[in-house]
Write a structure and sequence with these properties.
Number of helices: 6
Largest sheet: none
Length: 143
């Protein structure tokens, strides 16, 4: 697949992803990941990350809101644990997508795409989307 077609199929304007994530209270991030997961697995001919990661992340994302609405102080540690688990799942998913993207860009198009670990940890899916969009603007190195 040509890199411009790859970006057209997988990328979205990062600001659009931020706004849609905000307006849907984070649900859009799960949709974004699920849509790309299927297509990326087809391209890679392997599973980049297990679909259960996404399911677990969605559960860990929704349950704290339900528990918080109960207004029971004893549940607060469970809410914190679920929020930490949600963050860990999103970091794991982003990490696997980012590292695969880095490897794929190098082998498929000869692009030296560098994934910044710090940005990947803090911006997760937004940074992965940024990297996808960045591929179209990068120079192909001479082999």
């Amino acid at each position: 697949m040509h890199r411009h077609l790859f970006v057209k199929e997988f990328g979205e304007p990062t600001l659009q992803v931020i706004v849609l994530g905000f307006l849907t209270f984070g649900v859009y991030y799960f949709i974004w990941i699920a849509e790309r997961r299927k297509k990326l697995n087809e391209i890679a001919n392997k599973e980049i990350f297990d679909k259960n990661f996404l399911i677990y992340a969605a559960i860990c994302s929704g349950l704290p809101g339900i528990f918080a609405s109960l207004h029971i102080r004893l549940i607060m540690p469970a809410i914190l644990i679920l929020q930490i688990a949600y963050s860990a799942f999103m970091i794991a998913i982003s990490w696997q997508m980012g590292k695969w993207l880095e490897e794929y860009a190098n082998t498929q198009w000869g692009i030296e795409l560098r994934v910044n670990t710090f940005l990947l940890l803090f911006f997760n899916i937004l940074y992965v989307n940024y990297l996808i969009n960045k591929i179209a603007d990068m120079e192909i190195k001479e082999i």
